[in-house]
Amino acid sequence: MVKNKPFLLWVILTTVWLSGCSVITPTSSPAIDVYTLSQQMDQTTTASEIKASNAVILALSPIRSPQGLLSTGIIYRDNDYGFNSYAYSRWSDNPSKLLASYLQQYLTQSQRVSAVIPVGSRADADLLLEATLVDFSHHIHANDADSTGVVSIIFYLINQHDKTLLATKQFTKEVTVDQNNAKYATIAINQASQLVAVGLQAWLEQQITNLPEK
Questions:
Q1: How far, in Å, are 77, 98, 140, 213 from residue 95 at the CA level?
Q2: Tens-digit pLDDT profile for the chain (214 aa)?
Q3: Is the pTM above the cut of 0.70?
Q4: Alpha-carbon distance 69 to 133, whole Å?
Q5: Is 66:131 a contact under the CB 8 Å cutoff?
Q6: 95-107 and 182-209 are packed helices; what angle lies between their axes, rounded to 10 degrees?
Q7: Which is nearest to 130 in space by CA: 54, 208, 65?
Q8: 3-state secondary structure string, the chain?
Q9: Please, which residues have CB within 8 angstroms of residue 134's CB and are 6 or more apart in sequence?
Q10: In a 10 Å sphere around its CB, with 0-12 CB exposed, 13-18 middle and 19+ buried, how is residue 179 labelled?
C-alpha cells in the first residue's frame, strides 16, 4: 500500500489539474455587428453638372457632440431617461465623424457649392459651416408606441472672411423603427441622416442665393 501512495497522489493531482483546465477554458463571445451611414446620393445631381455662377467653397468644421455620443456605441433611450448602448453592435466610427463624412460627400452635389473642404485646408473658403450634434439615437417609447431613430443637429453658417454669423438652423428628423433592435435602429438613423442632409442642402442653397454679389 505504501508503494502505491505516490501513484495515487499523481492520479489525484492529474485529475484536479484536468478539471481546472476545463473550468478556465474561455467561451467565445458573440460577434460584434458593425454599422455605418450609407452614402445614398441624389441621382438627379451629378458631380459633372455645371456649378452656379455664385457657387462657393465651403469649409466644414468637425462636428461637436455631447460626451454620450463620442463613442461608437449605438445608443437607445427610453421614457425613463435611460441612456444605454446595444451590447453587441456598434458604429464604424463615432456619430460626429460619420456625419461629417456623410455631409461632406452629400453637399458636393449642390450646384451652389463648388467644393467642400475641411477646416485647416490651405485652400481659401468663402463660407464656414459649424455644427453641434444634439441627438443620434434610437428612442424607445412606452405603451407600444412606435419607436424612432432620431438625428438632431444645429448648423451655424459663418462668413469665412469677416467671421460674422450669417444664419443658424436646427434640423431634427425622426424615422419609425420597425423592430426594437440595433439593426433596425441603424436603418432608421440612416434614413433620418439623409433627411437632415437633404434639408441642410436646401437651406444652404437658399442662404448662398441671398448672399450679396461679390
A1: 16, 5, 19, 36
A2: 445 666 666 556 566 555 555 445 566 677 999 999 987 655 444 544 688 888 999 999 999 999 999 999 999 998 777 899 999 999 999 999 999 999 999 999 999 999 999 998 999 999 999 999 999 999 998 776 789 999 999 999 999 999 999 999 999 999 999 999 999 999 999 999 999 999 999 999 999 999 987 6
A3: yes
A4: 8
A5: no
A6: 50
A7: 65
A8: CCCCHHHHHHHHHHHHHHHHHHHHCCCCCCCCEEECCCCCCCCCCCCCCCCCCCCEEEEECCCECCHHHCCCEEEEECCCCCEEEEEEEEECCCHHHHHHHHHHHHHCCCCCEEEEEECCCCCCCCEEEEEEEEEEEEECCCCCCCCEEEEEEEEEEEECCCCCEEEEEEEEEEEECCCCCHHHHHHHHHHHHHHHHHHHHHHHHHHHHCCCCC
A9: 66, 152, 153, 154, 170, 172
A10: exposed
Cell 469665412: give the residue: 160
Instruction: Report whether 42 contacts 110 (CB < 8 A).
Output: no
Cell 443620434 -> residue: 136
Say if residues 167 and 157 touch (Cβ distance below 8 Å): yes
